[in-house]
Amino acid sequence: AEMAAARLSGTENRLVSLPLSRIRVIMKSSPEVSSINQDALFLTAKATELFVQYLASYSYKHGRGKEKNALTYTDLSHTAEECETFQFLADILPKKILASKYLKMLEKEKRDGEVREDDDEGEEQEDEDEA
């Protein structure tokens, strides 16, 4: 295994584009990970690259960017929302909305939350009255 790792270390820069040091830092940020085998690091980097390529090509083929010969953020977020395979990315690639629309959504959530809080208080008072 050491020879394989040594062989990889000489050529890995050409085989993967992502920086292995960054991937190592991300992997080590997990509390369950104490040490990372060089082969595991390389395979994680390569799998990540292949996943990103697949996401990009799928989004390009199924998005509107193809008309403009470009891949757009909207294509990526649409893929995350519509394709079951990529739905786990929906929080990371949310649909773009105008700031004004977002602020209105926050205001509505705040109002709805206040209404719910009032309802809860009413229920608590009823419980106290019964006791």
TrEMBL record:
Record's keyword terms, sorted: Acetylation, Coiled coil, DNA-binding, Nucleotidyltransferase, Nucleus, Phosphoprotein, Transferase
Occurrences of domain Transcription factor CBF/NF-Y/archaeal histone (ranges): 17-78
This protein's record includes keyword Nucleotidyltransferase: yes
GO CC annotations, alphabetized: CHRAC
Listed GO biological process terms: chromatin remodeling; DNA-templated DNA replication
InterPro entries documented for this protein: CBFA_NFYB_domain, Histone-fold, Transcr_DNA_Rep_Reg
PANTHER family reported in the protein's UniProt record: CHROMATIN ACCESSIBILITY COMPLEX PROTEIN 1, HISTONE-LIKE TRANSCRIPTION FACTOR CCAAT-RELATED
Name of the protein this chain belongs to: Chromatin accessibility complex protein 1
Organism in which the protein naturally occurs: Vireo altiloquus
